[in-house]
Amino acid sequence: MQRQPPPDPMPPAFPSERSAPDLVSTPGGPFRATLGAAFSLSGRGLHTGRRATVRVGPAPPGHGVVFRRTLRDGRTVDVPASWSLRERQPLCTALRSPEGPLIRTVEHLLAALSAEGVDEALVEIDAEELPIFDGSAVPWCRAIRAAGRIENGAPRRTIRMLRTVQVEDGRRTLRIEPHDGLHVSAHLALAHFGPLDWSGTITPDVFLSEIAPARSFGRYWRAMLGRAYGFVTRKPFLQGCGVRSAAMIVRGRILGGMRVADEPVRHRVLDLVGDLALAGHPIRGRLIAAHTGHELNHALVARLLAEPDAWELV
C-alpha cells in the first residue's frame, strides 16, 4: 500500500461560530444571501488525488452558486450548480459544463453553503475536483462562517411541498412530504454495525455540530482495491482515499473511532443536503431516507422537477 501524504492543513476553529447571529441566521430567511468576504482553501481530491485550490467569493443577487474552473490553457469555464448539468460519476456528485469540462465532488461544499443559507457564490477552482480534506464538511462550514453571511435584499424563494414524492430502488427508498423547514430522518444498516439512524431539522448549528463532522466512509479493503484499480487504469477513482480523507471501516469498527454517533448515516444526510441544493432553491419538507445515496438523491430531485404540481415556490 502506498504511504499516505501528510494531511492538508485544516482551517482553524472559530470561537464565534455559535455566538454571531448576524453571520449564522437560519437558512429559511426571507432574503437571499451571499458571503461577506472571499476565502480560499487547498487540498487533494478524493478521486483524482490531485491538489486543488478553491476560492469561494461573494456574488450578486440571482447569481446562484456557480463553479468557475480554470483549464490548463488558461481558459475558464462556468458551471452552475444545477441538476440539469449533473453527470453520473462513481461515489460523488459531478457537474459537466456544456463546453465539456467536468467538476467533481461538489456535494460537501454545496451542503455547507445550503445549510448556512448562502444562495449566491462564485466558486473558482484550478483543477477538476474539489478537495476532500478529512472527508467531512467542517472545513467548508468554518470558512463560510469566518467569511460571514450578508443578505442582499432580493426575495428568497423556497420549494414548499404540497404532496409526497417518493423514489425507490429495491430496499433503498427516499421520500419527501410537506413540512415546515427541512427535516431529515435517515436510516442505514451496515454489516457488523446493525441499524444506524439520525433524525433532526437542518439548521446551521445542527448541521455544523451533528452532520458536518461525519466523514465519507467505506470498507478499507474495498477502498484499497478501488485505489489500485484507479492507479492501474489511470482513472480518477479513489486516488486520494485513505485514513486521513475518509472513515475506513474494518469489520465492525472505524479505524480511529467514530467522530459522531452513527457517523455513516450522518454522512449520508450530509450528501443528501448537498445533492438537494442542485434543485436551485431551498427545499421545505420532511425527508425520510432508507439506505439512500447519490443516485437516489438525484432521482428524487429529478422526480420533483418533473412533477411541478407536487410543490410551489413561495
Could you explain the architecture of this structure?
The strands form five sheets. Strands 11, 12, 13, 14, 15, 19 and 20 form a seven-stranded mixed beta sheet that branches. A five-stranded mixed beta sheet has the order 2-3-9-4-5, with helices on one face. Helices cover 22% and strands 33% of the residues. The protein contains six helices and 20 strands. The chain is of the alpha+beta class and 314 residues long. It has one domain: lpxc deacetylase, domain 1 (Ribosomal Protein S5, domain 2, 2-Layer Sandwich), CATH 3.30.230.20. Helix 1 packs across helix 5. Mean pLDDT is 91; it is low at 1-26.
What is the radius of gyration computed over CA atoms, rounded to a whole number of angstroms?
18 Å
Helix content: 10-25%
CATH superfamily: lpxc deacetylase, domain 1
**Tally of strands:** 20
SS element count, helices:
6
Strand fraction equals 25-35%
* Computed structural class: alpha+beta
Number of domains: 1
- Write down the secondary-structure element order: EEEEEEEEHEHEEEEEEHEHEEHEHE
Give the CA-based shape. globular
Are there runs of 5+ residues with pLDDT below 50, and where?
1-26
Report how far the terminal alpha carbons are from each other. 53 Å
CATH class: Alpha Beta
The main pleated sheet reads as: 7 strands, mixed
State the CATH topology.
Ribosomal Protein S5, domain 2
Q: Do you know the CATH architecture?
A: 2-Layer Sandwich
Return the average pLDDT rounded to an integer. Answer: 91
Brief description of this entry?
This protein is an alpha+beta fold.
